[in-house]
Specification:
Largest interface: A-B, 23 and 29 residues
Number of strands of chain A: 9
Shape of chain A: globular
Strand content of chain A: 35-45%
Strand content of chain B: over 45%
Oligomer: heterodimer
Number of helices of chain A: 0
Helix content of chain B: under 10%
Largest sheet of chain B: 7 strands, mixed
Order of helices and strands of chain B: EEEEEEEEEEE
Radius of gyration of chain B: 14 Å
Distance between the termini of chain B: 36 Å
Strand order of the largest sheet of chain A: 1-9-8-3-4
Shape of chain B: globular
Chain lengths: ~110, ~120
């Protein structure tokens, strides 16, 4: 898997947008960008994914640069329950053990009242 | 639905002992996955089942690890004998389809809360 780089921590005020960056400069053409989060003592939770177009769902938006070397996850109105570690992952098209999710260290987002 | 249920939540055992982790998937989900998470290696897929049948166990680290799914509502992951390097959080996840594994991965797997295993 291509490596990703994320800041170790970020703070965000409740109700404001949280913008979490991720660098993936070695991403290859068929690799998707995935975002997961993990709230303390819970299993990973899928958030969103994309290939090259920007994506939006009920949880977040994903902005991918044109060269695909970086992306930003946007939580439009952060709440205290969004406090978690957020992981950016790139994954290609392979099966079997490629269910592996190499999370790295992620970004610890702290949403403050 | 209560979601994926794992037990125990925490397990501390001595090296050499047998450890059994348990999982109840979400009713109706045909796929069940066992993962292991450590800081060093991230989240690793150990094995997954489809309709109670093991499909891919290439992630199982050694013969000391075994997994079974005797019916659609129960699975176990057994380590015998356990070693300190097996210390990790073990997650069970279930999914209604294999799209959690295959591109474009747009069906997430539903994870349990994990079992934190410490082997001393």
């Amino acid at each position: 898997d291509a490596k990703t780089t994320q800041p170790p921590s970020m703070d965000c005020a409740e109700g404001r947008a949280a913008n979490l960056p991720c660098n993936h400069s070695t991403i290859s053409g068929n690799e998707y960008v995935y975002w997961y989060r993990q709230i303390h003592s819970q299993g990973p939770q899928y958030i969103i994914h994309g290939l090259k177009n920007n994506e939006t769902n009920e949880m977040a938006s994903l902005i991918i640069t044109e060269d695909r070397k970086s992306s930003t996850l946007i939580l439009p109105h952060a709440t205290l329950r969004d406090t978690a570690v957020y992981y950016c992952i790139v994954r290609g098209h392979y099966g079997g053990s490629q269910g592996n999710l190499i999370f790295g260290k992620g970004t610890k987002l702290s949403v403050k009242p | 639905d209560a979601g994926v249920i794992q037990s125990p939540r925490h397990e501390v055992t001595e090296m050499g002992q047998e450890v059994t982790l348990r999982c109840k998937p979400i009713s109706g989900h045909d796929y069940l996955f066992w993962y292991r998470q450590t800081m060093m290696r991230g989240l690793e897929l150990l094995i997954y089942f489809n309709n109670n049948v093991p499909i891919d166990d290439s992630g199982m680290p050694e013969d000391r690890f075994s997994a079974k799914m005797p019916n659609a509502s129960f699975s176990t992951l057994k380590i015998q004998p356990s070693e300190p390097r097996d210390s990790a959080v073990y997650f069970c996840a279930s999914s209604p389809s294999d799209r959690a594994l295959l591109p474009p991965f747009n069906t997430e797997a539903f994870f349990g809360q994990g079992t934190r295993l410490t082997v001393v």
